Amino acid sequence: MAAICRENGIVWEDKNLSTHVERAEGPQSVPALLHRNAVIFADAPAYREKEYGIWQSWTWAETLEEVEALALGLADLGVQEGDFVAIIGRNRPRLYWSMISAQMVGAIPVPLYQDAVAEEMAYVLGHCGAKFVIAGDQEQVDKVIEIKDQLPDFEQMLYLDPRGLRKYDHSRLHQYSHVQDAGRAKRDELLPVITARQEKLHYDSTCVMLYTSGTTGRPKGVVLSNRNVIETSRSSSEFDDLRQTDSILAYLPMAWVGDFIFSVGQALWTGFCTNCPESADTMHTDLREIGPTYYFAPPRVFETQLTNVMIRMEDAGRFKKWLFDVFMAHARKVGPDILDGNPVSQWDRFKYNIGELMIYGPLKNTLGFSRIRVGYTAGEAIGPEIFDFYRSLGINLKQLYGQTEATVFITAQPDGEVRSDTVGVSCPGVELKIEKNGEVFYRSPGVFVEYYKNPESTADTKDAEGWVATGDAGFIEEDTGHLRIIDRAKDVGQMADGSLFAPKYVENKLKFFPNILEAVVFGNGKDECTAFINIDLTAVGNWAERNNIGYASYQELARHPQVMDTIQSHVEEVNASIAEDEMLSGCQVHRFVVLHKELDADDGELTRTRKVRRRIIEEKYDDIIAALYGDSPTVDTTTEVTYEDGRKGSISATLEVRAAKTLQARGKMAAE
Q1: For residues 228 and 410, what is the distance between their CA atoms, to the nearest angstrom?
Q2: pLDDT per residue as tens digits for the range 482-506
């Protein structure tokens, strides 16, 4: 039975669907959106991936055929309605398709972080009771095989890349393409089955389950409905005028809600093309080749790119370095105003155009940002200097604020209202309120259904009226309506003298410097603030090579006297900046150590989304923290580490405790 469908003024006949899309509201599920796109955008590119240096492309019509073939194969394997299907691997079109295929058969996709160790995967797979796993390659297959005895619900596993798997036991292991072939062979028999299951899908059916990063404890399974995903994708696409002709590069973890919304939700709503790089090593090259018009990256990615730019300029000739410095100074002065359409003098505009020709344009091309119409950063606060750098180049980089529980979008910055110190205004359909303790609450069509198997946490996070506690402290500006986030509510505290303690504010300022990769600031309830610092091995290593300084390890380079002096100068520069803010002047760093190892997700110190786990760090390095608040100039420490193959080991080191110069707050000096 064909369906006559209407949406946004578009009328189309879909012979593959019946009543489940024939509604005034439009498609009611992600599979229904795919069916729509296969009709109205049939020959437009939907997905691309790079394999062996060659880009391959699939149209929306071809994508529907691939997705349907896998759905038929999954039904043939025995996937039932309500089953959980885990998806593990790097960004690949076929893994995105598997999420839609799972929904076609009434199952629930659960993407996992591909870099998670087997133990972490065991918890998620066991918690949701996944019966089926779709894995990208041998590495992911091995992880599941290692823990399969801990998974009583596990039944079958599919894999994309057959390399290395020929001699494995295939009694419960199947090649992805073979499952598709089996589905195609039984199409006439199974198509009525999956069609009937799709017809049962509605706005409140579960679309996907995504696990939180687990900053403060075990990850929680966030259940998102079709309503959450489709309404959020629609409103956010309209907010930024996303178009069918846009394209994105899908390189962020598939288990992260942002990637799901950008690469599945918004891609299906607007019909734009999702491009998958060949590997993490080729990501930058692939970014330049694709030249996306819509781009998202967490602050760490922008920080790394800026670090690489600064390293290259340090290696450049004197004239080229001078030219870069002169035009970048001008870009910081007028670039953001030109981008926002504010008045700029003819001379400044002319000079900026010369800079575009000589510096900004080539730099954006090198970064892969030449075609970006809309760029976003989120996940944590970005340093103002880093943010302003990209906008000064003419890149429309904006900030958004969101959560997994909100299906990403809570606030975003409208064009022309972009600032480094806010996260924008409430997104369409989102309501905000600030509680007396400063915590931000919101409610919207994107609010999650529940935490799976965790009614207590659901009730603690979402009240009966649908208001969700973000866990972040902030305030709404009365004159602009912009939301300003101070820090995590649980991390914001007071110094011993009652002044405000906001560690993230200081950490972001420290991470602006290319030599600093990560920083963790302490001081809640203390008289003074102290800090842990990780050097950026790429930036500092480049400096060492240019100065003929040999080193054998991260630890040796981190404790080099000149490196310590450089980091101290950065800390003192940040202190001078903080001293100008009377409210936060108490957060100046008095003492610091450069850690002997990088903070690592495998060691539990960071989440898989690279967020600092403060409580774990405080417990793990309590001896170093004690030394920071003591009188000793050094501290001996031994730290357990996890190697890439899962083995445990330890690193011992003697760390130097450095004192940094602090300044009196400018407001206090004026008062005196």
Answers
A1: 12
A2: 998 877 777 777 888 888 888 888 8
